[in-house]
Predict the structure.
Amino acid sequence: MNTATLTSPETTATAAATVSEVPVPEPITKIAIICSKGTLDMAYPGLILANAARMSGIDATLFFTFWGLDIISKETVDKLHVPTVGNPSMHIPTLVGGLPGMESLATSMMKKQMEKLDIPDVRELVEILDDSGAELYACRMAMDMFKRTEDDLLPQVKDVISAMDFYDKAAGAQILFI
Amino acid sequence: MTTLEAVGKTIELNNEGFLLDADQWTPELAETLAETVGLGPLSDKHWQVITFCREDAAREGQSPGLRRISKLSGVSMKELYQLFPKGPGKLAAKVAGLPKPQACI
């Protein structure tokens, strides 16, 4: 009978052996993070994850595209905002979120909280990443679209590259889109 | 849990290689722990970091994060990465016999 075959000690032993041979997952050795958003709350996750990777000995490459360019531009790096409109996690009515001063209020509240937790501001985090050996790149197409030049970027940005270049740099990496 | 035969004792480590019993730590053991993570003989700069980490952990009750080390130990972020190229966030604490730091920074 089929049932007998399935429950025979021999089959069970084979199954157990198979289970114990399951290989330990390979550790992550390289991560490539695409930062496409320029709000304060979307700037931090990419930068913190890249930093945590470097702290763990994982290589990190960051590619800043579209509004993500604001994170690495001299003019905007200190002026990133928390959006209060179209952001359901704020738990305030959209109309209230749109009132003058609401966005500045939410932004300064978040910045204060960050300071309390001793989390560096975005400019310092970019410097830390550079010191850690992470590689920061700006997207050429986004640069052209927003009419920015290399002079507009923070000195920690290594190069302005195309999306195809990004894939070359990201060889062997886990890719994360933010 | 794994064990390590070092300095004439059986040293217990957790699965990630962090010392389980902080009291087992000695400077000689730090040299052995450093070897197990691929670091050569420890330099004075390494010791500056290790000493700071142990003192700070004793004060604060937790392993310091990397930014805290770079701000307060006198060893810069860049140097920390040169001293512990395979990940200073984990390795400084590991060699100092402290638990894995909880800080993301």
Observations:
- The beta strands of chain B are 2-6, 9-13.
- The mean pLDDT of chain B is 91.
- Residues 2-95 of chain B form one domain.
- The longest strand of chain B covers residues 2-6.
